Amino acid sequence: MLRIQSANGKPKPNEISIFDLSKVTIEHIYPHNAASASLMEDLELLKNDIGNLSFWPGRNNNSAGNKSFAEKKSLYEQSNVTLNRELAKSMGWDKQNFQQRRNKLLKMAKKIFTV
Q1: Alpha-carbon gap, residue 102 to 81, rounded angstroms
Q2: Residues whose CB is less than 8 angstroms from the CB of residue 111 and which lie 6 or more positions away in sequence, other chains included
Q3: Is residue 18 exposed (0-12), middle (13-18) or buried (19+ Cβ within 10 Å)?
Q4: Rounded Cα–Cα distance for residues 46 and 11 (Å)
Q5: How far out from the chain centre does Cα 103 lie?
Q6: How far apart are CA 40 and CA 34, in angstroms?
Q7: I want to staple 93 with a disulfide (CB 3.0 to 4.6 A). Which of 40, 62, 69, 73 is the partner?
Q8: Phi, psi dihedrals of residue 3, rounded to the nearest 5°
Q9: How far apart are alpha carbons 33 and 60 in whole angstroms?
Q10: How far apart are CA 60 and CA 14, in angstroms?
Q11: Distance between CA atoms of 36 and 111, rounded to whole angstroms?
Q12: Distances from the Cα of 73 to the Cαs of 7, 17, 55, in angstroms?
């Protein structure tokens, strides 16, 4: 007779993930080479700033290419990186979204690193 036991205690989430840095690529939320139809002058100068950057495995970044935020949103939703999934909750990507994300990332970094 097989006996099924119930779980006891509180489950603990996996709090760390391991990324193979040789397979991780930098993702530009506002595209590094935006198509002229989706060019945003106020983000052009900020495209290499931390507020506009994230990371993905190369295969995701290759498929996203230089697509707009709206076109990449579903890829952010499917990401195993929490910061990318949070991006997917944004309605769009503009200077205000960029600045909010930049401030959040810098605040997180200051908790970890001495600046």
Answers
A1: 17
A2: none
A3: exposed
A4: 41
A5: 15
A6: 8
A7: 69
A8: -110, 125
A9: 17
A10: 23
A11: 39
A12: 37, 22, 14
pLDDT truncated to tens, each residue of the chain (115 aa)?
555 555 566 766 566 667 778 888 899 999 999 888 888 999 999 999 999 999 887 677 777 778 889 999 999 998 888 889 999 999 999 999 999 999 999 999 998 887 6
Question: CA gyration radius for the chain?
Answer: 18
3-state secondary structure the chain: CCCCCCCCCCCCCCCCCCCCCCCEEEEECCCCCCCHHHCCHHHHCCCCCHHHEEEEEHHHHHHHCCCCHHHHHHHHHHCCCHHHHHHCCCCCCCHHHHHHHHHHHHHHHHHHCCC
Inter-residue contact 54 to 86 (CB < 8 Å) = no
Comparing C-alpha atoms, which of 56, 54, 47 is closest to residue 95?
47
- Rounded to two decimals, the pTM is 0.79
